[in-house]
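Weekly modeling sync, notes
Attendees: S.R. (lead), two postdocs, one rotation student

Agenda item 3: backlog of single-chain predictions. S.R. asked that every request posted to the team notebook include the full sequence so nobody has to chase files. The rotation student volunteered to paste the first one in as an example of the format we agreed on. Action items at the bottom.

Example entry:
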Amino acid sequence: MATLQGHGLSVDLPAGWDGRITRRPVDPMPPEVRPFAAASGRDMTESTHTVAHLANFPLPEQRGDFGSGAVEIMRPGDVLVVLLEYDPDSTKTALFATKGMPRQLDPSAFSAYGLQHALPGQGGAQWFFQEAGRAWCLYVVLGDLAGRSTLVATVERMLAAIRIDPQATRWSA
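Predicted structure, as returned to the notebook:
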């Protein structure tokens, strides 16, 4: 079992699992835009936050935040767990009112309609929550919606291995 750590997240990956914890690089503000941003009095910098991709299959190097690039290669026994962090101020909104990451999932929550984009046989679901003062979306894709009870048990074992710590770093570039 390998421990994956980064950006205030850690997870004990079981044998056969792959995972990445990253932050998208921030595009610097072009010099020609800086005077307009300063004159407006608004912070025009882009925020970037933590994203974790955890899967029981090899992840491709190129992946979108919600797993595009990975979901297309999933087979029926595969699962993809995505944790995507939002701006800390989001913890004050109703969407992120739930305290603590869900660790027990209802298999009936998964459907083809829960996917970012529908792929034959797959099912997905997402939950918004806050933990350790941080706002998150948990997005899970199952490679076989018909086998969701078994696959959800696999996902729950992974969720039990995730730890979220408070993050005291700067959130914007």
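Discussion: group reviewed the output briefly. The longest strand covers residues 123-131.
Action items: rotation student to repeat for the remaining queue; S.R. to check formatting next week.
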